[in-house]
Amino acid sequence: MAAITRLQQLQLLHPPPLTLRRSLLFHKPKQLTRSRPRSFSTSPILCSNNSHNTPESSASTVGANASIVGDLLDYLNESWTHFHATAEAKRQLIAAGFHLLNENDEWDLKPGGRYFFTRNMSCLVAFSVGEKYTVGNGFHVIAAHTDSPCLKLKPRSASSKSGYLMINVQTYGGGLWHTWFDRDLSVAGRVILRGSNGSFVHKLVKVKRPLLRIPTLAIHLDRTVNKDGFKPNVETQLIPLLASKLEEASVETKEKSTTTSSKAAHHPLLMQALSDELNSNIDDIVSIELNVCDTQPSCLGGGNDEFIFSGRLDNLASSYCALRALIDSCKSPGDLSSEQAIRMVALFDNEEVGSGSIQGAGAPTMFQAMRRIISCLADTYVGEGAFERAIRKSFLVSADMAHGVHPNFMDKHEEHHRPEMQKGLVIKHNANQRYATSGVTSFLFKEIGKIHNLPTQEFVVRNDMGCGSTIGPILASGAGIRTVDCGIPQLSMHSVREICGKEDIDIAYKHFKAFYQDFSSIDKKLDVDS
Prior knowledge:
28% of the residues lie in helices and 22% in strands. With 530 residues, the protein is of the alpha/beta class. The strands form three sheets. Strands 1-2-3-13-4-14-18-16-17 form a nine-stranded mixed sheet, sandwiched between helices. A six-stranded antiparallel sheet has the order 8-7-10-5-6-9, with helices on both faces. Strand 2 and strand 3 form a beta hairpin. 45% of the residues are buried. Its cofactor is Zn(2+). GO terms for molecular function: aminopeptidase activity. It catalyses: Release of an N-terminal aspartate or glutamate from a peptide, with a preference for aspartate.
């Protein structure tokens, strides 16, 4: 195998314009079987990253058999943090003609309208109102989350050890922390800047170049690591290295800033990197909220380019499929002309740590929005219990990534429930209500797939293993909304680098879009409580 040149390394980190790669990104099914072996290529054409790709431009190429995989790669490469994921979703919604609302203002909504709002720039609710909607009709919702396990900078991140500048971090969520060692890392998140007129400005920031690294200990100094396992102490041994102390002195001399004091909360070198990205003075940065991020781009991989290799697939893959399905289900005139319900996407933060926050699914964000929507669209008195009646007619798809069967650890799955990649969405079941799926909700969701010839799979955890959970039970119990838990199968969940099947992305998108378009007619055919 030929060595990768420095130029090729730079191309991988900074891919050329998407227009030079788009024609080579997608593969028709017949192209997946090649007549002769393909030589390895370091070309970055499979790593898509173009923030100017809009839903309108991409939607024109997405027909019944086209793919959204390239657009997902763009979204993943833009969305290093939950803040960036929400901001990119906001940009795409505005480009698609959705109207931005503010929770602090009065709303003026109309049938046929498309709207959204954000909270904390890490939570988003978007919805489109059917033209035949009447108060008391239901909401058809797909809910996902924007956060992923990661390392977050501590409020005082500056420390030093043995002549190195180190960055103190907190672990967020249940990550596979050993996978963060020996990766080319950087930082991204949000800052608050002091404005020239005394105001404050909220901005997102992303340092794209490799800035940090967590080096492993050489095997010569840890001879039993392969036998005993790699078990780093996350407080003392999971600390990213920023630079040598020599660099700090040069920055202090250059900036002569009050923030370069040895007692500063963050290293001056880190603050200088942020300042350069923001084109601001260090002294104007009054607050930071940063994640440590892997700099390797999301890309296609595998012998036939059938996999997606990326960080944060859990759960940005679900978030994007849901967002795109909503946008595309109402992008053309007439798409809402016969719809009697309200189509909605809800993307929450903090799922990985229990959802108990103002921007998490544990907050009443979505249900408060539903009440406001009903109130806005009620021209006259509509009788008692309008919200309660609407909830009983509503349906929620809780979309969160699923555990695909691991070929090297097949015994970790119940033998009759082993979801495979490339074979469709996985419906999750748990008798102890760790998932919110019921026999009724599972049937209705599978029926949508059956009508459109979209495959589904089933998952239950082994009885001798613990079961994870999702936002599904939280939302289902929050207001009594019917819910199905489902997800795209993946491997390496909660690793810094995860893997899922390319075909499953398109299947999920089509299933979600069909849910918006067809659920009203299917739901009418089944009556459970009469």
